[in-house]
Write a structure and sequence with these properties.
Elements lengths: L5 E3 L4 E3 L3 E3 L10 E5 L7 H11 L3 E5 L1 H4 L5 H9 L6 H10 L1 H5 L4 E5 L6 H11 L3 E4 L14 H6 L5 E4 L2 H9 L5 E4 L25 E4 L8 H10 L4 E4 L9 H4 L3 E3 L4 H10 L2 E4 L12 H8 L3 E4 L2 H6 L7 E3 L2 H13 L1 H18 L3 H10 L2
Parallel strand pairs: 4-5, 4-6, 6-7, 7-8, 8-9, 10-11, 10-13, 11-12, 13-14, 14-15
Antiparallel strand pairs: 1-9, 2-3
Helix pairs in contact: 1-16, 4-6, 9-14, 12-15
Amino acid sequence: MPATVLCCVECLLEVHNSFLLLLYFDMNTPCSLLCIGDDSLGSTSRHRMEALRRLGNNVAIFNPRSLLRLSSSWRSAIGYLSGYCLLQSELIYVLQTNPMLNQARPDLVYVIGGELLGPQAVLWLKQRFSVPILLFNNDDPTGPRDWKRFISLRAALPFYDFCVCVREQNLLEWIAFGAQRVFRVLTSYDEVVHAPPKPVDDADTSESDSILFIGTLIPGEHRDTFLLKLKQSGLPIHLMGNRWQRSPHWSELRMCHMGNGILNTAYASALAKASICLGFLSHGNRDLLTRRSVEVPFAGSLLCAERTSEHQLLYEEGYEAIFWDTVEECGLLCCDLLTHPMKREVMRQAGSSRVRELGVGNEDISRSILNSI
């Protein structure tokens, strides 16, 4: 059976001193679920909704963001900076008057993200449906970086029946904010969206022998400086993502920039074509691993990531993935693998096998959550 890792603060067994495994009973009967969250096709919340569907559940989707007109830049900014407190009255009206919600008869309300929903919204859902309300959030709402953004979510934590996080720090922090039951799961890939692409023509060598990073330039994380040093050492760096034009090193990095961020199968295909994929963490988000940590090997590439305790628990270093503490160490490891393609291929295959053994696909994680409530 896949070693899906799931945590609950009420019933725990310690595994590897860091990850915790919940003992649970199987629930094989499909559920009728009301999923509330971003349903745009490239969003991870939509990926999770579709995984719940693939498990045989009847999934209805409600996206309050579109009804609150948050595509407007000024409304989005006001919402973000106020922690969406200023939009709560409008949100309650949207909930009360939405025809789909008036007709829904779910067994479970499954909130993904949850930053828009304050206490009154969650209480309305509880009173309207009289079923458990679950929150799944893969950000860091009790961390310092996005503190303002999650004001409404933190206030609503006591009113959820179950809360699911992906960071060990969040377990006790969410309880301190009043959460009743908190589970931890690992970050996940999607079994369909991130599946390895079909073999391509030998003529397609656009990313061969390249070191790729797909991601956003985040202020204060110094990703641009790191990549510039790798490029200056002679390594074939390829970069995809947004906001890189804001870097003070843009004039030197622009030749490495292959385009803005990509999603879904295009993202998985780009990962698979690269010889090595870099895995930066968001230190402001207190990351010890990211979705990229499992998406890269699942899509068929080799993970080269920052060395952390959780990365080292997931993969055998030097056999299933490579890890680094400094840009100099990263450069030496990448240079060695690029000059030894057979060694690189053995490691790539080992990492691909390992991530499947872990059982951290969206379907695996979703099944474990439903089995545990």
